[in-house]
């Protein structure tokens, strides 16, 4: 199957047209097929993360590692409900090209710990930053990684790159999730609501608090039931095939198994019967798009940005990619975009195109 890559350049540096041609030519040179990872229930490699103050004890982090240890590091961050295994078709091709590749399971997902804490997107940012320091030797001697993330992993990757340019030399967002800053009309509505809340009397505050408690209880119940429904293998496959619109067959039984296993907490990484509560806390704290607007995070970037976009995503649509690209241009960020014939998870639905795009990006950065 031939994957057509539509490259739109947005460079903000001298001789942009030359760099555009160079990058496009590199993308067009795809790596030969390499066998994907095989799902297994046993842990891959584990590491203890003890730098999050809200966690009651050190947290176990599962990750996949491949490629020469001395190779330039690439960190791959999965999306909601998935794990590092979702990069099954990318790890080995990138490693074969000479890079040291890591695919991490975020806290709360995959074969990593699932504590009952208040989940915040900053948790995953700090987890990944600590991982790069302790497992990939980044920050020491100027060693830095390329970080790529899909969906909420794209948001985590952007946050990591913006906050820690000493650890990251380039960032790729693959249909990265997150909210953008409100429009002037939305900002005015938010301001008016804040003023209304500030003007409330004691009785109204008590009423509002009671209503909020009832709503939270209802939302928790809905999340618990929702987890029970969504973790059924048939339902998982149905949802995956909706967001794999070009190659739905790529959402196979092996991928489903990698999602079902941690959702059932077969490895016992959550407190007893704690997975539903973990699910609720992740959804309730992150459904609105993370701690900070995506455009604000992009505006803080001091490293090159690659937007690797599945243009047929029914969730994080091409309009989000357009908005991210426009924000990067507005802030003078060094950005380029590769359009992929895929949906929400281009790394798994169209791995040849994604691998070619990531390798072209990496080689461009290597040449600097």
How would you sum up this structure, described in words?
Helices cover 44% and strands 14% of the residues. With 368 residues, the protein is of the alpha/beta class. The protein has a domain at 6-179 and 288-366: Alpha/Beta hydrolase fold, catalytic domain (Rossmann fold, 3-Layer(aba) Sandwich), CATH 3.40.50. It has a nine-stranded mixed β-sheet, sandwiched between helices. The radius of gyration is 21 Å and the shape is globular. The two termini are 33 Å apart. Residues 1-18 have low confidence and may be disordered.
Largest sheet: 9 strands, mixed
What is the CATH superfamily classification of the domain at 6-179 and 288-366?
Alpha/Beta hydrolase fold, catalytic domain
Q: What's the pLDDT, averaged over the residues?
A: 87
Which percent range describes the beta-strand content?
5-15%
Q: Tally the helices: what do you get?
A: 13
Parts with pLDDT < 50 across at least 5 consecutive residues: 1-18
Query: So, CATH architecture of the domain at 6-179 and 288-366?
Result: 3-Layer(aba) Sandwich
- Assign the structural class, choosing from mainly alpha, mainly beta, alpha/beta, alpha+beta, or little secondary structure: alpha/beta
Distance between the termini: 33 Å
Strand order of the largest sheet: 1-9-8-7-6-4-5-3-2
Cα radius of gyration in angstroms: 21 Å
Count of individual beta strands: 9
Overall 3D form: globular
